[in-house]
Amino acid sequence: MESGTQAFQQRSLSVKLWPPSHGTRLMLVERMTKNLTTPSIFSRKYGLLSNEEAEEDAKKIEELAFAAADQHYKKEPDGDGSSAVQVYAKESSRLMLEAIKRGPTVKDEEIADKTSIHETVFDISGGRRAFIDAEEAEEILKPLREPGNSYTKICFSNRSFGLDAANVAAPLLSSVKQQLTEVDLSDFIAGRPESEALEVMNLFSSVLEGCQLRYLNLSNNALGEKGVRAFGALLKSQNNLEELYLINDGISEEAAQAVSELIPSTKKLKVLHFHNNMTGDEGAIAISDIVKRSPALEDFRCSSTRVGTDGGVALAEALKTCTRLKKLDLRDNMFGVGAGVALSKALSLFAGLTEVYLSYLNLEDDGAEALANALKESAPSLEVLDMAGNDITAKGAASLAACIASKQFLSKLNLAENELKDEGAILIGKSLGEGHGQLNEIDMSTNAIRRAGARLLAQVVVKIPGFKLLNINGNFISDEGIDEIKELFKSSPDMLGSLEDNDPEGEDYEDEDEDEENAEEGNELESKLKDLKIEQGE
């Protein structure tokens, strides 16, 4: 017992967070490349980098951040490296923001056009999230006073307006509202008392009433029904919206009904995002009324909204009118089998679907099979399929495999946290290979997969050109199986994800405290980097 404790202490003390592995560094480059090429308020202002330029920038950023962090680490060689990790993440974030603000490289003849584009965007979201008072508003909003300005897009996100600052902004917004096409008022009343926040929203709404917007973002404002109705004047005057974002807004049943009631027309709507709200079934029914009136919809997100079977069925029925849909995200709801089957009838109509996110919906085998069968006959250009966390077994895997086999443009497959076991993993593995040259990422973690299933998956993906990552962590692979898999990846070890949580015995760890402590130490670096975001610093 004493020697075991001693060994554990030695193992714990030997954990070093710095330097990161080569795989971790590559992972960070990939994530930064994705950040740099993802459309945002920054890209609308500064331009969007190409994949090639973003990847080149990401590699340089990582090298500079690593050098800075490594130099810092050398000053504390006896430490565990945690402060070096912080320097690594912070420096990466700072350099990313610089790259985005620099924008894409342009030729001389394009500079004039690029400058004129920049002058159409007025954005005060940079810097720390903070309150703004009347005096600061006078100064920071000064460009809106310039006669003949050509601003068509404004972003007041990340700055909290009180009534005094709102009164400064109101006449300035009124002076430019006829030329505005995009308005971002996300997270612009944070920390204000409800009564003041509602006054501010009413004021902005009345001032902007009548402007013909294509883009409106009211996310992260804890609106609720009162907040939605405070924006009533603005919403009622919108007939040409193409993008509407109501993310993390406390959209309850009543609030969803208010949105449906207030917007007169959504015929041109292409993007509609409700995420992280408390919508529930009745609220989903109200949202489905909006969806029914949006035949041009291409991107619909209603994830993490507490929607159950009835609401899921209502949304599924409404989506049948949206035959142009390209991206569908319904993750993290409580649909169940019934809503899954209903949704399958809508999916069969989406010929242009490229991304579908249906994880954590309680689909089980019957729901998953219905959806897989529908997708098999539609969506020939599907690139992303996510059905993680749905209690899918080998029974459901057969239909999934047939669907996957038909998707030659598939680039990402996520079936994590199901119950596929070896039989299901082998079926999925055999559906891949030739004809899947675009595939670069597979997540089959936490599926009770053993040696045979894991080995076949590995044998398949190592032959796919350009493949980047196989995640089979959290399974029940024997030590011999692990050795076999590592041998298969010996020429490209970065393609194989971590296997730290694999359990060769096929059982949960009995000593949960020890497991949690080891996991916390061993994964601290990953956790610090996995959610790396661009900090809007100075």
From TrEMBL:
Residues 493-538 are annotated as: Disordered. Pfam families: LRR_6, WPP. Its main location: cytoplasm. The keyword Cytoplasm applies. One of its GO terms (cellular component) is cytoplasm. Residues 525-538 have a biased composition (Basic and acidic residues). Residues 14-109 form the WPP domain. Residues 500-524 have a biased composition (Acidic residues). This is WPP domain-containing protein. It is found in: Cytoplasm; Nucleus. GO terms for molecular function: GTPase activator activity. Keywords: Cytoplasm, Nucleus. SUPFAM superfamilies: RNI-like. It comes from Gossypium mustelinum. Gene3D superfamilies: Ribonuclease Inhibitor, WPP domain. The keyword Repeat does not apply. The lineage of its organism: Eukaryota, Viridiplantae, Streptophyta, Embryophyta, Tracheophyta. It comes from the Eukaryota. PANTHER family: RAN GTPASE-ACTIVATING PROTEIN 1. SMART domains: LRR_RI.
